[in-house]
Amino acid sequence: MGEDAPVCLADGMSEFPEIVTEGTGHHEEIADRAELGLSFSAKGRTRAAAVTELGKLVAAAQRALDSPAVTVAHRRLWVHDEWKRGSRTGTCRASEQLTLRVTDLAELETVLGALLAAEPSGLTGPTWLLDDTDAAVLVAQRNAVADARRRAEGYAAALGGRLGPLRRLTESDGRGARPMFAMRAAGVEGAPDVDVRDLELEPEPVRVTVQCTTTWGLELEG
Length: 222
What we know:
Layout: E1 7-10, E2 13-30, E3 33-44, H1 47-60, H2 62-65, E4 70-84, E5 87-102, H3 108-117, E6 122-129, H4 133-158, E7 161-175, E8 182-183, E9 205-220
């Protein structure tokens, strides 16, 4: 039998044949959360001046950041000298990156419009998410086990036997949301909220995938 054959014999127990199969289970639900990546960047002659300018940019987005529909999940700040061809340019740069979670998708367009009006250096998203991933995983797990069992039953029948009890199960799963939209902000200072309705940012299905490997006993006739 080849190395990749689906039927194997337990080490030292040739009287107990086994069938090893892999199963994959999927489950999709429409996203009810979204994640956005936001970045601001400013220059100044000193680090303090760069940070002051950065603070003004971030303050312009504060109305959106304070929205009940928005949670700031992550912030990271960089302040450093600027260099060109190995020499200091005499300016400093301050940057901040934020990860935002929008928990009310009915407010997503409003939040995006307000963020873009604040002139960020960059804005990416939305990455679509599920609030209750665990429930989706449970469904995908059942589908993965059912898939593995169907495969094992098929091999057992092909060998003229029947499927015995489950002996082992291991899992490696892949789950996640797909980034569906990415953009770079642009506009003029003091602009009103940007209208993003024409971008058609409707929530997308989020697919949860679970993979498992199962080992079953094989009961042969005679």
